[in-house]
Amino acid sequence: MRKVIIAGLVLVVLIAAIAWVAWYSPWLAVSNVEVTVSDAPEVAGPLTVDEVTAAAGIPPGTPMLRVDPAAIEARIAALPLVRSVHVDRAWPTTLRIDVRRRVPVAVTSSGAGYELVDRDGVVLRTVDGPVDGIPSVAAVGEGLPAAVEVAHDLPGWLAPKVEVIKASTRNDVTLTLRNGATVLWGSAEEGKLKGEVLRSLLRTDASRYDVSAPGVPTTSDDSGAGTAGPGGTGRSPTAGASPGPPSPSPVSPSPVSPIPVSPSAGE
Question: Which neighbouring-strand residues pair with 233?
Answer without folding.
Answer: none
